[in-house]
Amino acid sequence: MPRSRSAAADRDRTRSLVPSGAAPVDRGGAQSGVAGASSRFHFETPWLRDFYNPTHEWRRLFAEVMGTFLLVMVAAGAPVVDALSQGAVGRGAEVVAPGLMVMAIILFMGKVSGAHLNPVVSLAFALRRDFPWRKVPAYVIAQIAGATLACLFLSAVLSRVGMLGATEPGPGISGTQAMLIEALLTLGLVSTILGTASGAQNVGPLSALAVGGYIALAGLWASPISGASMNPARSFGPDFVIHNFANYWVYLVGPFLGTLLAVGAARILRGPGGRDPSAVLAAQGAEGGLTPTNTVVPPEGTTT
Question: What is the CATH number of the domain that holds 103?
Fold first, then answer.
């Protein structure tokens, strides 16, 4: 068959798969953060139009504020309650509770914003080209706002006992040691998030169990060393309210270093990002019911 007729047949076959209401659109391929960008063209569904519609962005930002608020309420609140109750909570519960909360948040609102809840998660998805860079600053601001509001609430209701749940290097642990542990823990956390978001794993809602389980596991063995934060927003909230940023650099440098290592490992394990519909749905949320089968990309070498 002549090449022109073959290309036309490919276009016809691709268009037959396009869901009702979808329209072809060019958003610049992988650089736009849309999954499956082996071609510069994809087909836009109503959900995808909503994602790029700025009037809908407030839902995702609200979800990030709310989700991070709930996470930090538990992560910082458990040490506060433990101090108020003379140790009734215990270290085991302190480190397991945030993992359970993250699991619940992913399940109840992950499809709205992707439930990043952590600046380094937004950074990782953007570096993998599964999330648009232009949306990262607003997500980070929302996460920091949620963490700060949670700590202001704890301070007003329960007082600032227990350093308001601030993450600090443990006794006898230097800032450098704590930073390296935070980098290692974040490497594992971000690798778990990117891996379970990948279509190759196909774990669906079980990703919440994997991520929540990892957070609990990391805290169980490493919280006496660094506090097992893995989240610059979670550490920012208490430090901001108690006005003590002396060791905040540990929880900024460590998680960002771990994230870069995790993104590099993901490239080795699964190749370049920006081409996996499952990963982009995990990163961006799926409000409106978009599924991987709704995102259609023309075959290589065709034009639209």
Answer: 1.20.1080.10
